[in-house]
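Quick one, T. Sequence first:
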Amino acid sequence: MHDLPRTPYKEKAEKLEVALAHAQRRAAWAETVAKAAKFDLAEAREEIERLKRLLKAPRQATLFPQGRA
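Structure tokens:
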């Protein structure tokens, strides 16, 4: 392809190849970010469920146990 004479079509094709490579890199980055966000969301949901369970549990632990003040 490099030994062909330069034409407007060849130049346009090269620019499109560069743009495609850039778009593919951005898509891979976006996929990584989306996976991280999905993991963070799952982790947050687990923490919410843990806190809900704590709120429903009988109050056994206190800041100042009986006998201390």
